[in-house]
C-alpha cells in the first residue's frame, strides 16, 4: 500500500509541474504513439511500478498523445527473448537486468563482476556518471538505446549452520550458486565449494544440510520470496553482487520518433528512477524487518576484505573491459 501511495504522490507532483508550465514539453504532432514495454516481474514489483510511473508521466506530459502499455509477469517473454524482440522492434521498451545485456553488448557485462561496487552510493555514482552514460550510449551499436538504470539491490551469502563473518569462514562451505563462470570463480577465490543446482531445490538442500548456504537479496530470502530464512538463519551482508537494472528502447522505435519525443521519453525514464529506487528500498526494509523478527541474524562484514580476494578474478576478466573495471573501482 505504501509503495502505491509513493507512486501516486510523485505522479501527482509531476502532473502539477506540467500544468504549472515547469515541464512544458513540445508537442510536435497530434499523432497517437503507443509503446509496448516488457518486464518479467509481477505487477507490484518495484521495476514494474517504475515503468508504470514512466507510462503515466508520458501520458500526462504529452496530453495523452504518447501512451505506454506495460506488460509485467513475463507476458511478452523472458529477459533474453524480450531484449531480442526490442532489437527487432517487435517490442518498444524493456526493463531487464544488465547481466543478460552483456551478451548483446559486451562492456555492459562489467557490472556483473563481484564486489565492484563498495555500496549503494558508489553504484549510483558510477551508473549516473560518465561511465554509466558511456555504456548506455554504447548500446546503439546493438540496436538498443539505453534510457536509465534502476536499482536491484545486492546479493549476499546466507548459511544454515554457522555465520560468515570474514573470508576465512567461507573455507570449504558448500554454497549453491548460479551456473555462471564468473560466480564459480568468485567462490573459488573465496575458498568456498560452489554447488550449482536448480533454484527450486535450494530450500530442501539447506534444510537437509546437502548444502551449507546460498546467496540472494533480502526480498528473495524473505517471506515474499522463497523463504530461505526459515532454513538458513545467518545472513551476511557481503553484498558481492550489485547488478543494476536497465530500461532500454528499440533503436528502430527511437529513430521513428521526433527529437522532442525522444527527449520526453528519456525524461520520463529518468523521472521514474527515484520512484523505483524508493520502492525497492521499501521492499528491502520490509523484508529485512520480517526476517529479523523471525530470528535471522544479520551480520555486517568488512566488504573490502572480500573484495581484496578478487585480485585473480579481476586479472582474468578485467582485460575484456579495457579500463572500465579500474575506473569503476577508482570512482569516489
TrEMBL record:
Cross-referenced Pfam families: DctP
GO MF assignments: carbohydrate binding
UniProt xrefs under SUPFAM superfamilies: Periplasmic binding protein-like II (SSF53850)
Taxonomic superkingdom: Bacteria
Coiled coil: none
Keyword Signal in annotation: yes
BP GO terms, sorted: transmembrane transport
Keywords: Signal
NCBIfam families registered for this protein in UniProt: dctP, TRAP_S1
Protein name: C4-dicarboxylate ABC transporter
Source organism: Limnochorda pilosa
Amino acid at each position: 500500500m505504501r509503495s502505491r501511495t509513493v507512486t501516486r504522490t510523485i505522479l501527482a507532483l509531476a502532473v502539477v509541474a506540467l500544468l504549472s508550465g515547469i515541464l512544458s514539453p513540445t508537442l510536435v504532432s497530434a499523432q497517437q504513439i503507443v509503446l509496448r514495454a516488457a518486464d518479467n516481474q509481477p505487477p507490484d514489483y518495484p521495476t514494474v511500478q517504475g515503468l508504470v510511473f514512466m507510462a503515466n508521466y508520458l501520458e500526462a506530459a504529452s496530453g495523452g498523445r504518447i501512451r505506454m502499455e506495460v506488460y509485467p509477469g513475463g507476458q511478452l517473454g523472458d529477459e533474453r527473448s524480450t531484449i531480442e524482440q526490442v532489437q527487432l522492434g517487435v517490442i518498444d521498451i524493456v526493463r531487464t537486468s544488465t547481466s543478460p545485456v552483456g551478451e548483446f553488448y559486451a562492456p555492459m557485462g562489467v557490472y556483473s563482476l563481484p564486489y565492484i561496487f563498495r555500496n549503494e552510493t558508489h553504484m549510483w555514482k558510477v551508473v549516473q556518471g560518465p561511465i554509466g552514460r558511456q555504456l548506455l550510449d554504447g548500446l546503439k551499436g546493438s540496436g538498443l538505446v539505453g534510457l536509465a538504470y534502476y536499482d536491484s539491490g545486492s546479493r549476499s551469502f546466507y548459511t544454515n549452520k554457522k555465520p560468515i563473518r570474514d573470508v576465512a569462514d567461507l573455507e570449504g562451505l558448500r554454497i549453491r550458486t548460479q551456473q555462471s563462470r564468473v560466480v564459480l570463480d568468485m567462490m573459488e577465490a573465496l575458498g568456498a565449494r560452489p554447488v550449482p543446482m536448480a533454484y527450486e531445490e535450494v530450500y530442501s538442500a539447506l534444510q537437509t544440510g546437502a548444502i551449507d548456504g546460498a546467496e540472494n537479496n533480502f526480498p528473495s530470502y524473505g517471506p515474499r520470496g522463497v523463504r530461505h530464512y526459515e532454513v538458513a538463519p545467518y545472513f551476511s551482508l557481503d553484498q558481492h553482487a550489485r547488478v543494476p537494472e536497465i530500461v532500454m528502447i528499440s533503436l528502430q522505435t527511437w529513430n521513428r520518433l521526433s527529437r522532442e519525443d525522444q527527449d520526453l521519453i528519456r525524461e520520463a525514464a529518468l523521472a521514474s528512477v527515484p520512484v523505483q529506487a524508493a520502492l525497492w528500498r521499501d521492499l528491502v526494509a520490509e523484508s529485512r524487518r520480517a526476517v529479523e523478527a523471525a530470528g535471522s541474524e544479520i551480520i555486517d562484514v568488512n566488504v573490502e576484505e572480500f573484495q581484496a580476494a578478487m585480485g585473480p578474478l579481476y586479472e582474468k576478466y578485467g582485460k575484456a573491459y579495457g579500463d572500465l573495471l579500474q575506473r569503476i573501482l577508482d570512482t569516489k
